[in-house]
Amino acid sequence: MYVKQLAKTMGVTQDTVRHYTRIKLLNPIRSESNGYQVYTADDQQRLKFIISARQLGFSIKDIQQIVAQSEQGNCPCPLTRQLITKRLAETERLFQETLKLRTRMQAAVRQWENSSDGAVSADICSLIETFVDPLNEQVNSEEAQ
Fold it and tell me: I want to staple 37 with a disulfide (CB 3.0 to 4.6 A). Which of 2, 23, 28, 116 is the partner?
């Protein structure tokens, strides 16, 4: 099958298939009759693996390492466990940062609900400049105790 067919079958864009081909995660053969790249059932299976790994949060570099382990005849499962643990920790850190941002944004909405518009000449935006960060207030009150 050609790029267009593989992309349609797997529900990805043709550019996605071409990208994975460029970085050697997919290895189509060249048709002798027309020079087009022909993707095999193995390529389809590999693309399915890549899509699943990406959905689990693995980076392209992670996937390349896992594939390399497998192609060398080694079981990539220990590496896969190690990488997913690392990705989970990174995701948890980002999630916590996002929760803090959400808390700050909610506080800003509450604080600014009844605030008047306008800035004095020294201000750029008085709303932002007078914002009281509830997370910093919480830390300051804990330190004072």
Answer: 28
* Residue 37 backbone phi and psi in degrees, to 5: -80, 130
CA angle 11, 12, 13 (to 5 degrees): 135
Q: What whole-number distance in Å separates Cα of residue 107 and Cα of residue 103?
A: 6
Name residue 98's beta-bridge partners: none
Around 76, how many Cα atoms within 13 Å sit in the side-chain half-sphere? Answer: 16
Helices and strands counted in the chain (H then E):
7, 2
| C-alpha 47, offset from chain centre | 18
User: 74 φ, ψ to 5°?
Assistant: -95, 150
| pTM tops 0.70, yes or no | yes
Structure tokens at 59: 């980076």
